[in-house]
Design a protein that fits this description.
Layout: H1 6-28, H2 35-56, E1 59-62, E2 66-70, E3 75-79, E4 83-87, E5 96-99, E6 104-106, H3 115-132
Helix pairs in contact: 1-2
InterPro entries: CFP-6_PH
Domain Low molecular weight protein antigen 6 PH: 57-126
Transmembrane segments: 9-29, 35-56
Amino acid sequence: MWRPRTTRIVAYTTAGVVVLGLIALAVVVPEQYKTFDRVLMVGFGAAVAWILHMLARCRVTADESGVTVVNAFKTRRLEWPEILDVSMTVGDPWPTLDLSDGTSIGAMGINGAEKALAARQLAELQTLLHARGEAPDPA
């Protein structure tokens, strides 16, 4: 399984700070703020935390039959023969998987900002793709 390290740490830390900060704010605001206002503050913090969680949960998982790409708001299961290539050029935020139907999808679970880790994860995924994804030659 490949997932970004720094993105998860930053997202979950930020989510905790936002939620705790808004809970504290809801407790200490002047009395002119009603219960509804306080609930909205905490609810807003929860919404921000949910969005950050969705970004932090991104991952790419490979097994014998294929790859599961979990992006922020969509999960996609791909069989090995469906994936033609995986590439990430310098500066890309994440790799792109080119698919046999002519489309491509991003794999947010490998984060280009973590250069060394991303390069290692990309190489591992490419190795698996070449080992499992290529159709055998008809002999």
